[in-house]
Amino acid sequence: MSQAIIRAGFESRLSTWAAAQTPAIPVAWQNVAFTPPVGRYLRAFLLPAKTQTASMDGICRTWKGIFQVSFCMPIGTGSGTVEGLAASMGAAFTDSFTQSGLRIYLLEPFSMAAAIQEPDRYVVPMSASYRVDTVA
């Protein structure tokens, strides 16, 4: 199924970027056990939309959705650090990339949303919408 390939593509790129940071940034993946560290970490979500088809036989498919990464920072570290990390992460995702032969297009670049204050974290969500078209 293409959603699994799309997820693998985004998660692979994010994992590579997070591991290259100093120090490396742990990532909480959807439905995977995770114990939040004392310091910073990321939360990653693939939010798929309804699969569509433009062909009468249903062979051609279009997958759309949003990939969201939330930067979870210790309270009191300021917003400059997360803004720098967000810019760096956004640059790691080009307009399109390939995973298992599937071309994944970003319909818009990653952009930050308003910060959320959690009891023990300053969380800044960042997301981009994607589209994948397949033709038989």
The top level CATH class name: Alpha Beta
Percent of residues in helical segments?
A: 10-25%
* SSE sequence, one letter per element: HEEEHEEEEE
Quaternary structure type: single chain
Question: Would you identify the regions where 5 or more consecutive residues have pLDDT less than 50?
Answer: none
Mind explaining what this structure looks like?
The protein has 136 residues and is of the alpha+beta class. It has one domain: STM4215-like (2-Layer Sandwich). It contains two helices and eight strands. Strands 1, 2, 3, 4, 5, 6, 7 and 8 form an eight-stranded mixed β-sheet that branches. A hairpin with a 3-residue loop joins β7 and β8. The longest helix has 18 residues, at 2-19. The mean pLDDT is 93.
Highlighted features:
2 helices; eight-stranded mixed sheet; alpha+beta; STM4215-like; elongated; 136 residues
List the helices and strands and how they pair.
Elements: H1 2-19, E1 27-28, E2 41-48, E3 61-74, H2 80-91, E4 96-99, E5 102-106, E6 111-112, E7 116-117, E8 121-134
Parallel strand pairs: 1-2
Antiparallel strand pairs: 2-3, 3-8, 4-5, 5-8, 6-8, 7-8
